[in-house]
Fold:
Amino acid sequence: MLVGEPASTFSIAPIPLDATRPAVPAQLPSAILERRPDITAAERKAVAANEQIGVEIAAFFPTLTLSAQGGFESSIFSQLLRAPSRFWTLGPDLAATIFDGRLRAARTEAARAAYDQQVATYRQTVLTAFQDVEDNLASLRILEREIVVQQQAVASAQQALAIINNQYKAGTVVFISVLTAQTTAFTAQQKLASIAGQRMVSLVGLVKALGGGWDVAQMDQETGAIEAPAMAASK
Structure:
């Protein structure tokens, strides 16, 4: 379906998995996690919520047009000083009063709460990214040990098969013993191939968790332990 051919006329020749796995560096700087789209989106949302606090605070102040063509007496300030103290603007385009039932204060508090929520979401996103990286690194460490053990099991099974074959040729054992040894050797080889496939899947998962691949020559090896990416402070 994907290549636009009927299933009856399409086939794929089996290809052995002979890809060389990339070497995982001993240290992975946390800065490369900033490439992840979910971290970038969460960080930008937190910054936008931070800026919204400033927008709500700005609503407490009047909007005046300053002019250099007249003196103080001819400017709007002379009318502003004589106006009732509870109004910001004058004339028919009266905007709002200072006493608004704490509407502006409530909006500012809501903006701060929204910022706190976005910061918490950003923090959880970063922690989730760290978990993804650590899970795949741990999986790679465990699978590396399993491969070493399984390679030894394969070697032992093949050696046992060779001995059974010699014994069968010498007429000391029956053919069922050869079949049993072959089954044991094939099962060990199959398990080794399965573990190698799981290791490749974990490598792909690590690349995904890091937001892309890595270049050992370009990475900063002085970063040390993984730390959360920095974000602008709250207003």
